[in-house]
Amino acid sequence: MFTALHPLLLWGATAVAVPILIHLLLRQRPRPRPWAAMRWLLAAAQAAQRRYKLTNLLLLLLRCLVILLVVLAIARPALPGLGGGDRLVLIIDRSASMGARGDDPGPLAAAKAELARAELAYRSVVVLGVADDVQQFGAGSPADLRAALGRLDVTELPGGLDRAAEGDLAGQITTFAGSAADIVLVSDFQQDDGSGLSALLKPYARSLTRLVVGDHAVNAVVEGLAGMGDLRPDQPGELLLRVAGPAKGAAITADDGAFLPLTGAQVTGGLLRVATPPLAAGEHRLRIRLDDAGLAYDNLLELPVLVRAAVTTLAVGERTDYLTASLTADPVAFDLKRIAAPQLATEPLPPKGLVALRERVADGKRLADWVAGGGVLWATLELLNDDQALRPLVATLKPGEGQRAGGPYQSGEKDLDEVLAIGRRDSVPEVALPEDARVLLRAGDAPLVVQLPVGAGAVIVELTDLQPSGDESLRARGTLPLWVSRMARRATAALSAPAFWQAGQPVPMDATLRRGASAVTVKAGTPLLLAPGAWLRPDNTAVVVLPSRHEGQLQQDAPRNSAKNLAEALPERPGSDWGLPLAIAALLVAIGEGLLAAWAGRTYG
């Protein structure tokens, strides 16, 4: 099939009618005038007239041919089977969804195998890979293609081909692709349909097609951490993961050990309970891996954890109530020191520890700064509001008028609530809570104890005195120390918990992240293009990069008019670009026409 880089320009061939019209309009039509003295020259004149007409007709044909050759040279045609194609540009998606899926090596491996087997009738083949950047992996003869494909691999980064049509990458890929090439976009087209990149390159390409590799797949994605139990030294613990999609099982390892299968691991309601092995006190790295038939990229969660012995705790005040009694009752969980309120001014505050404030103090500003810097303060709402320096910590709590109905005590912890519910409080002060408040204890539906984030720390607030004079109902509950221990240790554990950022989503803040020998600076608001895993900030706080949820969506239909194999994607027996030879031919014909016209002028006048 005849093809042309600029087929619309072929309409310019109609310009050959111009010299024909000029020729017809300017033909000489002399009227015969009989002259007896010249009749003997008639035979010679008729012969000369025939030669003149033949020359004039030849000039007309040459002029038409010049116009036709110029039009064809600009349109740059190619004839199937006539010469080999000049350039083939393969633009291949290297994003994470092109990687392994269960036992299948993945779409990229399938594309590389098909390209390595192909016999390409091109003089030059260019291989470009698209991930977070555009890289040229090869540019040479078809014989060099296999070596170029060997250098091409999948990244652990989210994205798709259309990323290359944005910003600086657009200029890079148009430079690499050049002009008048046959371009094939190779992808699973799960994250985008390649329309942005197609629109960018089509004006420069002789042909552009999309080759779809890979099939739909059912996929499970690790979405993050829903909860973590209190990890204590040399004791088993528990994690609760958020998982989207079906998983056949899971395995866990600690500190680069071997993966151990988790017995009975099953996703229920989007949650997966994971039993952690006993660990010594200190910092550890857990890795939990899902087992599914889908994408391998989003099956792994790497989680730095801190196994803590006793939490350094400071109780301020001489009053003994349910809180100080509970903290004193568990010396394994809390390293408690009790001081009188005046002593706080000279007492060091526990780093990433707990302060139980039971009396008014004169040094509220230092305490408020400590909370914002990464500490947990437990106090009553009345006590905090009475201190001008501490009042901003609870500014988001809005006390209302009157009381609201209470009920049995409940914490949301099933193993505790059966006993806690024996006690009750019939009425509770009306308090409006902010959205970021976490309720730790209720009386019926009314909140009694809430946790509020404050900077890098938190404040646990009793909205009313839980143990008024003469009321022993709460302290009498046998599970109360366990509830206090669980809430306090969770709150202090959160101070060392990593931040969770999802790959492909906007970065929440400017940061420099380090992992091994790699250091990457990311800007707030830009897509996070990092491999999943644990990264460190300069202050050694951890950021866990979660796999992109969008990258794990493997049910998108192929774009319209896309090819299923390389034979469909390539032009049928592509021919050479004849633009330059036709331009040279047009020049030579124009020169020949000029020489013939000059000779005819001298010969016929």
In short:
With 605 residues, this protein is α/β, with parallel strands linked by helices. The chain has 13 helices and 29 strands. Strand 8 (221-228) and strand 9 form a beta hairpin.
CA(first)-CA(last) distance? 48 Å
Number of DSSP-assigned strands: 29
The order of strands across the largest sheet is 17-16-18-19-24-23-22-20-21
The main β sheet shows up as:
9 strands, mixed
Rg over CA atoms, rounded to whole Å, is 40 Å
The tally of helices reads: 13
Please indicate the percent range of residues in DSSP E strands (runs of 2 or more): 25-35%
Structural summary, described in words:
By secondary structure, the protein is an alpha/beta fold. The chain has five domains: 3-31 and 43-79 and 580-604, no CATH class; 86-217, von Willebrand factor, type A domain (Rossmann fold, 3-Layer(aba) Sandwich), CATH 3.40.50.410; 228-308, Immunoglobulin-like; 311-496, Rossmann fold (3-Layer(aba) Sandwich); 498-553, no CATH class. It is 25% helix and 29% strand. Strands 17-16-18-19-24-23-22-20-21 form a nine-stranded mixed beta sheet. Strands 5-4-3-6-7 form a five-stranded mixed beta sheet, sandwiched between helices. Strand 18 (354-357), helix 8 and strand 19 form a beta-alpha-beta unit. Helix 7 (322-328) packs across helix 11 (480-493). The relative contact order is 0.13. The mean pLDDT is 86.
